[in-house]
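note to self: the first set is below, dont mix up w the second
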Amino acid sequence: MSNELLGTVAHIGEAKTPAPKITGFHHIAYRCRDADETRKFYVDLLGLKPAAALAFDRDPGGRDRPFMHLFFEMGDGKFIAFFDEPGSADDAVFRMKDGIEDYHFAFEVATRAELDDFIARLKEAKVPVFGPIDHHFCHSIYFFDPNGLACEITVRDAKHDEIMEAEGGRVAQAIREWTEKTRALKKARLKLLNAAD
């Protein structure tokens, strides 16, 4: 797939229609290697509610490409979703990703005791789990699902909201400082960043 469809910020000034308020995620979606294995991990192990398993013979473009779209519901009514598309399954896709800094999703629990219960449960199921790590506004544990996706379970610390509010007030300044510090390195490494200038 080419980069022609990548969003850009080059013409943001031309957008005159006000942005409606995004109320949150409906779902986030990933590819999975097997629907039943993924259901067992997210429903039987992590306790999410099975919400839908939709089988299709054709993709949205009308091509013959059978796939299943799975949805698992979290306690807030939002979903994590998966695509099981056997025609393009490849072991290289379902390996452990490079790490949590590439991408991961973070589930949230209400108490530290619940976080500790998940540590025990994952260890009992022989799922390697790391943490808890103190991020100074939350504590988190990390593990990988059978598809190689990095997962986090986090609990907010007592000062979470206070810290996030203070950080929110300095986002523009922090990004400006970071951009000044890293722009030369990125311009040397990223063709698309140079094309945007």
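second set (the one i keep forgetting abt)
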Amino acid sequence: MDSWIWWLLAAAALGIPLVLTAMPEFAMFAVGALAAAGAAGLGAGVVLQAVTFLVVSVALVAFVRPIAYRQLQRGPQIKMGIEALQGATAVVAETVDGEGGRIKLNGEIWSARALHPDQVYQPGQQVDVVEIQGATALVV
């Protein structure tokens, strides 16, 4: 059997743990095996095939892996929960001052308190949510 077939079998064998474990490093080694299969198909010797496998695999692990992990570490760009409410605009439902009050925020009634204790907001006024403390929105 030709050596390029062995490299293709190695690439397929490296694809199995990739699917089972979802570790992208196996895909990088599989691409290295495919590169070695291409070198073997072009008539390269065994040493050059092995060097091709090593160079391509190590290059992918060294350069592509850090980029991929950085993308995974960023997390979702969508704000959810309390983070999504900060900066939102609300309408005052009951007078809001330093002691408390009620606002309508995203269709729900929330307890609210003025960020600055001397400020008073009347019903119908629009306010901005600065922070959420428990179940109370601090507004300006």
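remember for set 2: The CA atoms of residues 51 and 122 lie 75 Å apart.
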